[in-house]
Specification:
2 strands, globular, Cytochrome Bc1 Complex, Chain D, domain 2, mainly alpha, single chain
Length: 156
């Protein structure tokens, strides 16, 4: 892989983050401005759980390695280095917090298919719709596996 293709890959992952943080006029600030519900609805419509069932990896270690890379470039900015969550993040003039993905009572614990859907479609509360901008289905699958088997495993 050349240095140019590496930078292109980094830009493809980081650019949506940069664009999602751009400012808005004061009149549009507020909880409803966090993530446009039209995009979330489009991502929910585009989500296909059958496409995720078709994804296979030669072994779990490769999936976790890819998932860790995706985590580092796309997720840890909001969710913390180890998935501990963050407080006081700023998005389009609003502050928000992200949940810890490590808590035993985390609402997506034990629900890998729902986590894939959330990563793909995002939410109106600030989670980007990665399936439409920035991540392909294989990367969504890899980072979901990493969250469950890398971050949440007690051995880590």
């Amino acid at each position: 892989m050349t240095i140019h293709s590496r930078w292109a890959g980094v830009l493809l992952v980081v650019l949506p983050l940069i664009l999602s943080c751009e400012g808005e006029p004061a009149a549009r600030r507020g909880p409803a401005a966090r993530v446009d519900s039209t995009y979330v609805a489009e991502a929910v419509f585009e989500y296909d759980s059958a496409a995720f069932r078709e994804i296979s990896w030669p072994d779990q270690a490769l999936a976790l390695e890819r998932g860790e890379t995706v985590w580092q470039y796309s997720c840890q900015w909001c969710h913390g280095l180890e998935g501990e969550g963050k407080q006081g993040l700023l998005l389009r003039g609003d502050t928000f917090s992200t949940p810890s993905l490590l808590e035993p009572d985390w609402h997506l614990a034990g629900r890998p298919w729902e986590l894939r859907r959330r990563i793909f479609a995002g939410s109106e509360l600030g989670m980007p719709h990665w399936g439409l901008v920035g991540l392909d289905r294989r990367d969504v699958d890899a980072v979901a596996r990493y969250i469950f088997s890398g971050l949440r495993e007690p051995s880590r």
